[in-house]
């Protein structure tokens, strides 16, 4: 039987590293994607012999294309892809491609990487895509899909709205991807890990202080706890064939109504078209055989 292969982005620390660790314990060879060579080397050493490091900044389109080619060359097939990498910036920054860097990292990078790796996922079907989103998606507000990555200016308060938009885009992407992949054996789901004490909000001084105050309460989870739902979606038999879902680990989330944007089929299709245009992809997708 072929060795099972998984790729986890943003896996040099926090939730991503714990997802990678969990997959390794389940017998996978795991490729971890990160921006820092030093942190990547440290993570590979800590995680052990079946972990491989791939260096890439997911906000940079050429980096995403290069790392996808490297993953293809190294493995040839892929059973699980976990899009976990994400940033929350206090001030607006522009990506190398001219887009809002938070949107580029959190949405456009995963969108492009997933599409570039669909051939590998198709060859390994049944296979799974998991996208780490957030309950923050509920606070995205209205936005124009044609301007979803347009750079602008914002500070701490406004940055949360942009972050929330990026997480909403994650879920809309998963919904549309699942519909397009129906019947192929490749499934896609999104997950909210709840509030986790990680370095994601280091630039947000108020959030860092708040996290420090409540990090030992049930409201804030450890990275290991935050990784559990993503690992279940990636590996558990009970999710075999399930696709297009949003699963939340946030306490009480099951009592909340579904966000209106997640019921808007035309919005998610418009987001797909705009995203494909921004990253230079055709509007249709094809799986490998």
UniProtKB/TrEMBL annotation:
Keywords for the protein's UniProt record, in alphabetical order? Oxidoreductase
The UniProt entry, under SUPFAM superfamilies, shows: NAD(P)-binding Rossmann-fold domains
Q: Name one Pfam family in it.
A: adh_short_C2
> Oxidoreductase as a keyword?
yes
| Keyword Transport attached | no
Q: Which domain of life is it from?
A: Bacteria
Signal sequence interval, chain numbering: none
Q: Which PANTHER family match?
A: PHOSPHATIDYLINOSITOL-GLYCAN BIOSYNTHESIS CLASS F PROTEIN, PHOSPHATIDYLINOSITOL-GLYCAN BIOSYNTHESIS CLASS F PROTEIN-RELATED
User: What is the designated name of this protein?
Assistant: SDR family NAD(P)-dependent oxidoreductase
